[in-house]
């Protein structure tokens, strides 16, 4: 930090100090400065408690508790010249304690802090509403702000990892200065970098969402592989030759040739149903529709032999299909034996019914 000398058109570097050198303490000084002027942390915050320790079964206390404009609780932990090693763990622990607070709990905490009958008016002023009932304090997300002159590497590493896991956490570096017996304080957000904060938070959320998608996909793949193994084992037991050389798949379908290049018999495993079908795909949309139409010329005879088939020309798509399905909670393994019996029994019948009509197709 520099002092500007207008007369000499120059700047003079201000001596950087430590809190210890200036005899400032954490609770008596730094905590009070933030409590009286929370906007020094770069946004409008409403301090609702200091030295809060009203947790069941623990005597722990944290420095400051605040609300942001979205109604989220903000846990503010202050350190002086050194963040120490455990500040991240402390703050996360306190955030977990606060995660159970209801709106009425938060109101009670605030009333105890300000000791003012006009607390509702003050809350309305902060949230910019006229009606107290319009205030939304849902406490769906707990934020963390860490304040210190210097942050240890293990702290910044943990904070960056937590941000990538979707936790809203910030680090502010506070630096005291002294010049001509006057003291100054610089407050600077260092994690995430202020200019990139929105981008970093969005990227962290995107990564978190992608991880959830990937984990869900892996789970689906495992379920499908287990189901296909069970179905194919039953097929071998029954000597059903159509699928005898087919292996399990992580996808929701397995297929076997019909003897005609562009038609394939398929088992389909969806979350809410299973089905058998004849899938028509020659990679040429027009050719697929011709094949489908040739089979459909025999629709009455085929439907008489196999009831409740669904014929899907799928004009907006390249492929076509003829299918038979049944609803199940397919991810419930207690349904699997019934599902497998349904699929194998009907696929055997379906192949017998469709085979002579497929053999007649000529392009």
List the helices and strands and how they pair.
Elements: E1 2-5, E2 10-13, H1 26-36, E3 46-52, E4 62-67, E5 73-78, H2 87-98, H3 103-114, H4 119-127, E6 142-148, H5 153-164, E7 169-179, E8 182-191, H6 197-237, E9 253-257, E10 263-269, E11 273-280, H7 285-296, H8 299-305, E12 310-312, E13 320-327, H9 336-359
Parallel strand pairs: 5-6, 6-7
Antiparallel strand pairs: 1-2, 3-4, 4-5, 7-8, 9-10, 10-11, 11-13, 12-13
Sheet having the most strands = 6 strands, mixed
Distance between the termini: 83 Å
What is the name of the CATH topology of the largest domain? Trna Endonuclease, Chain: A, domain 1
- How many individual β-strands? 13
Proportion in β-strands: 15-25%
Shape estimate: elongated
CATH class of the largest domain, named Alpha Beta
Instruction: Determine Rg (CA atoms, Å).
Output: 34 Å
How much helix is in the residues?
25-40%
Low-confidence region ranges: none
Please give the CATH architecture of the largest domain. Answer: 3-Layer(aba) Sandwich
Query: What integer is the average pLDDT?
Result: 90
Sheet/helix structural class: alpha+beta
Number of domains: 2
For the largest beta sheet, what order do the strands appear in spatially? 3-4-5-6-7-8
Q: Note the run of SSEs as H and E.
A: EEHEEEHHHEHEEHEEEHHEEH
Number of helices: 9
GO molecular function: nucleic acid binding
Organism: Campylobacter lari
Domain DUF4268: 223-357
Protein name: DUF4268 domain-containing protein
């Amino acid at each position: 930090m520099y002092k500007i000398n207008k007369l000499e058109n120059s700047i003079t570097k201000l001596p950087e100090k430590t809190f210890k050198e200036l005899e400032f303490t954490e609770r008596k000084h730094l905590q009070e400065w933030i409590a009286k002027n929370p906007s020094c942390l770069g946004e409008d915050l409403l301090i609702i408690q200091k030295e809060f320790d009203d947790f069941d079964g623990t005597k722990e206390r944290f420095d400051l508790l605040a609300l942001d404009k979205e109604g989220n609780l903000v846990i503010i932990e202050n350190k002086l010249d050194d963040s120490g090693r455990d500040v991240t763990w402390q703050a996360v622990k306190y955030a977990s304690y606060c995660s159970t607070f209801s709106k009425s709990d938060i109101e009670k905490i605030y009333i105890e802090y300000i000791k003012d009958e006009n607390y509702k008016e003050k809350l309305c002023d902060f949230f910019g509403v006229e009606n107290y009932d319009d205030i939304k304090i849902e406490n769906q997300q707990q934020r963390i702000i860490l304040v210190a002159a210097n942050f240890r590497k293990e702290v910044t590493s943990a904070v960056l990892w937590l941000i990538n896991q979707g936790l809203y956490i910030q680090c502010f570096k506070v630096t005291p200065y002294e010049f001509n017996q006057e003291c100054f304080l610089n407050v600077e957000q260092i994690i995430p970098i202020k200019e990139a904060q929105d981008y970093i938070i969005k990227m962290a959320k995107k990564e978190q969402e992608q991880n959830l998608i990937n984990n869900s996909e892996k789970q689906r793949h495992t379920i499908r592989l287990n189901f296909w193994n069970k179905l194919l084992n039953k097929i071998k037991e029954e000597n059903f030759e159509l699928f005898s050389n087919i292996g399990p798949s992580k996808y929701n379908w397995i297929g076997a040739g019909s003897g005609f290049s562009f038609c394939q018999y398929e088992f389909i495993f969806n979350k809410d149903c299973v089905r058998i079908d004849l899938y028509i795909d020659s990679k040429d949309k027009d050719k697929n529709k011709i094949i489908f139409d040739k089979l459909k010329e025999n629709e009455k005879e085929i439907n008489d032999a196999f009831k409740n088939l669904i014929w899907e020309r799928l004009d907006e798509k390249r492929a076509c299909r003829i299918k038979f399905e049944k609803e199940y909670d397919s991810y419930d393994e207690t349904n699997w034996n019934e599902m497998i019996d349904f699929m194998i029994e009907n696929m055997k019948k379906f192949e017998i019914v469709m085979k002579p009509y497929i053999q007649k197709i000529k392009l």
